[in-house]
Specification:
By secondary structure, the protein is an alpha+beta fold. It has 2 helices and 3 strands; from the N terminus they run ααβββ.
């Protein structure tokens, strides 16, 4: 009986550790995708013709920029959200267009420090992955 109890406790611990590791990996992938989005928003702004909007109206505008006659792609594909498994990205809009993108996942992030330079604005406790904003140059940097 004692052996069965020890094995049960060990198995429960292994399942919890595996779930935490999986979530950590999904967070890392979300951060990598977030940097892709930030770079795409910067690229969209940087290639704006005079008088054209500097922020996309839709995420599809990042796949094929409608402001140019030739095909310009700021993203090759719209990635899945690693936390939801869907392409259900939430966008933050201003009158100019999309200025930030975030996950639709509601869970609390494990990571709160030691972000890459491009994601330094994410430092500190966040209540939800929805608070991890991947921002373009047209957005006000969150505090």
């Amino acid at each position: 009986m004692l052996v069965i109890a020890v094995i049960s406790i060990g198995s429960a611990y292994a399942v919890k550790a595996g779930a935490a590791l999986s979530r950590h990996d999904a967070e890392q992938e979300l951060l990598a995708v977030g940097i892709e989005f930030q770079n795409a928003l910067r690229s969209f702004a940087a290639t704006s013709p005079p008088g054209a909007p500097r922020a996309p109206r839709t995420l599809d505008d990042l796949l094929r920029d409608p402001r140019h006659p030739a095909t310009i792609r700021h993203l090759r594909r719209l990635p899945h959200d690693p936390l939801t498994g869907k392409r259900d990205w939430m966008v933050v809009r201003s009158p100019q267009g999309i200025v930030a993108i975030h996950s639709a996942a509601a869970g609390t992030p494990l990571k709160s420090a030691s972000f890459d330079r491009d994601l330094g604005h994410l430092e500190g406790e966040r209540k939800s992955y929805r608070d991890w904003l991947f921002i373009g140059p047209e957005a006000q940097r969150p505090q």
